[in-house]
Amino acid sequence: MSLDFKNTPKIDQVGLVERAARFKTRSIKKEAKIQGLNLALSMIDLTTLEGKDTEGKVKQLCYKAMHPDDSLVIPTVAAVCVYPNHVATAKKALGNSGVNVAAVATAFPSGNSNLKVKLEDTRMAVDAGADEVDMVISRGKFHQGEYQFVYDEIATIKEACGKARLKVILETGELGTADNVRRASDIAIWAGADFIKTSTGKISPAATMPVTLLMLEAIKDHYLKTGKMVGMKPAGGISDSKTALQFLVMLRETLGNDWMTNEWFRFGASRLTNDILLQLKKQATGIYQSGDYFSKD
Q: Which of 91, 158, 233, 281 is catalytic?
């Protein structure tokens, strides 16, 4: 399919930053805060993407995904995200828990490889049982203005995913401008992304509120045109509960209640889990726990 991505909407970056800042001013009362914290926990993709990952570490992460804190009545996280060679281990460890297995693919995090390698990477993850695939776009091709190449590559990877849902990582910290983020969002959405995702977590800045708002607006425009819902995943740099709640306020006020579920919104933020647990413990007991009581992932 050939589309013209040179005429995507122009973005008022100053206005975007100002609008995103307003979501930080909302007052959230105790009961709503507890609901929000539980919702945020249920939206987390608990992640380990290191060269030193072992089967033991993946199994431990899966246990935490299913049992964030046995002393609280709280949800599991949404998914565990690993490299393709650890998908089988995670799938077995998670069993019938309802926690999904996500795998990064397509020469993550750089994306600098050919389509054959990227397809093999994707199929390796899917064949091992991945429920979701997180791919990276070819930022070099994007910066060369080869938008059709980027579109075609995403569409091809989407086909290779089969029943697995595809999250397309834009790596917004490398795109340079708000206009580029909007253009990349539109390319990914039209190419068949089930989710669009800010970052790999390896580049800074990552999941800022302005860039997430911009991507939510792209999703909204697509929905108004087609009636098709697309998910959103801010990833990288979201490490405290207060910020997570602000993101949920922004999500609710931009896209509405239909997106307020882990089927359509995720946090790529493993460190966030422990802060949410600390806050939920505080709400339940009135006492702050030490962070040393929680595993460092």
A: 233
Quick one: residue 201, left, alpha or beta (phi over 0 = left, psi -120 to 50 = alpha)? Answer: left
In a domain, 131, yes or no: yes
Query: Would residue 92 show up in a list of annotated catalytic residues for this protein?
Result: no
Give catalytic status of residue 233 as yes or no: yes
Q: Which domain holds residue 82?
A: 13-293
Give the separation between CA 28 and CA 249, rounded to whole angstroms: 9
Residues facing 44 on adjacent strands: 267
Domains in the chain, number: 1
Total-model pTM: 0.94
Residue 4: pLDDT band (50, 70, 90) is confident
**3-state DSSP call for residue 264?**
coil
Q: Of 134, 186, 194, 275, which one is the catalytic site residue?
A: 134
Question: Average pLDDT of the chain?
Answer: 94
Would 5 be classed as within a structural domain?
no
Name the catalytic one among 158, 197, 275, 281. 197
The whole-angstrom separation of Cα 285 and Cα 69 is: 14
The dihedral built from the CA positions of residue 237, 58, 117 and 192, taken in this order, carries a sign that is: negative
